[in-house]
Write a structure and sequence with these properties.
By secondary structure, the protein is an alpha/beta fold. It has 11 helices and 13 strands. The longest helix is centred in the middle third of the chain and has 48 residues.
């Protein structure tokens, strides 16, 4: 029996559907009656920003999710959105993971601090840096194989567990929930994907990540090749993931297929700066005249540092300070629930009044489609 199969069997034991359902019954959630006849000028949405916290059992994980959902329901939200890689906490179920995690995180923090010191030294040897970069890269490649094995082994039980948990909580609380992303395994291929559930616990749809980071490519992940739009009682949504917002095409296509809002879970594997953050959802919203709903995962795990702010964004003129921000986390770390009200009537009016928007030059653009995208 290989290690991948052992990992799968271990997680099947730790995240059994029977255990999930038994604990859910103990929660005795007070169901809120979800009104299908929603005021489209007053749609409340909530985006989760949370810190990675490895759990010792599946019950702890469910409690964490419930904390955010309960707060969103109390605020009157119709939709709550969890972040990318929303399953990382479940690595805590692996024997001795917490011990290994502490060692890897401490080591990575030391390296990060040393790199900061090196940046201050103007006379550093460039050739030595190149050699060290190659060393780091080869070390990363070696560890990637092990991480890929863990992801492949844990994928199916984690997907089944998360979907069951979210289905129960969506129905129990009477709210629409986006799962955050998890690893989707189809045969031997793995994808970064997330699912949207309705207020009666039904699975509305699952979207694969379309554009990958270099790290995900090294892990052997595959790209999704289509984007679905889902019709909800409070508008039409699409659910791309993190890196998908780096490219304007994603949001332009979302607008073309009829979306009103974009759900975007993120987990940025980088140190936070506002300039890096600006390559994502904010400019895309300004270009496409869509609402942008961004959830975020942050913190350290297995020597990797994730950062990012959750927020709700709209076209500039629709926001109070004319800055395109309806609500934004005060920090790129820690736990927060970011909520805001959306108004579809105002969005459609803004589109009609938009001066620099939607111009197309097909005669020019079609000449470069093949060269740019490799289309035959």
């Amino acid at each position: 029996m290989n290690i991948e199969v052992l990992i799968e069997k271990w997680f099947e034991r730790k995240i059994s559907l029977e255990r999930i359902e038994k604990y859910y019954k103990q929660l005795r959630i007070e169901k809120r009656r979800f009104l299908e006849d929603i005021d489209l000028e007053n749609i409340r949405v909530s985006c989760v920003q949370r810190q990675i916290q490895p759990v010792g059992n599946i019950e702890e994980y469910i409690d964490m999710l419930c904390g955010f959902i309960d707060q969103a329901v109390k605020e009157g939200s119709h939709l709550v959105i969890f972040p990318e890689y929303n399953f990382f906490d479940l690595f805590g179920l692996i024997p001795e993971f917490n011990f290994l995690n502490q060692i890897l995180n401490k080591k990575a923090i030391k390296v990060k601090d040393k790199d900061k010191d090196k940046d201050k030294d103007k006379d550093k040897d460039k050739d030595k840096d190149k050699d060290k970069d190659k060393e780091k890269e080869s070390h990363l490649k070696g560890s990637n194989h092990f991480l890929t094995t863990i992801l492949k082994g844990a994928a199916k039980p984690i997907e089944a567990g998360i979907k069951r948990i979210i289905a129960l909580l969506a129905k129990g609380y009477g709210i629409y929930i986006y799962t955050g992303s998890y690893i989707l395994k189809e045969k031997e291929a793995i994808y970064n994907a997330g699912s949207l559930f309705g207020s009666n616990g039904n699975l509305i749809g699952t979207q694969k990540k379309i554009h990958l980071t270099d790290f995900e490519v090294k892990l052997g992940m595959k790209r999704g090749n289509k984007m679905e739009v889902y019709s909800l009682p409070f508008g039409k949504v699409v659910c791309p993931i993190c890196m998908d917002a780096t490219y304007f095409e994603t949001f332009r296509i979302a607008r073309e297929i009829g979306a009103d809002m974009v759900i975007l879970p993120i987990a940025n594997l980088e140190e936070y700066t506002i300039w890096k953050a600006l390559r994502g959802i904010w400019p895309r919203v300004q270009e496409s005249y869509l609402y942008g709903l961004k959830s975020s995962l942050n913190g350290w795990i297995a020597g990797m540092h994730f950062t990012g702010k959750a927020g709700v964004f709209a076209p500039l003129l629709m926001t109070k300070k004319k800055d395109g921000i309806l609500s934004l986390s005060s920090s790129y770390e820690g736990n927060q629930l970011i909520s805001a009200n959306l108004n579809l009537k105002r969005l459609y009016e803004a589109r009609e009044k938009a001066e620099y928007h939607e111009d197309k030059n097909v005669e020019f653009e079609e000449k470069y489609i093949e060269k740019t995208y490799g289309v035959n």
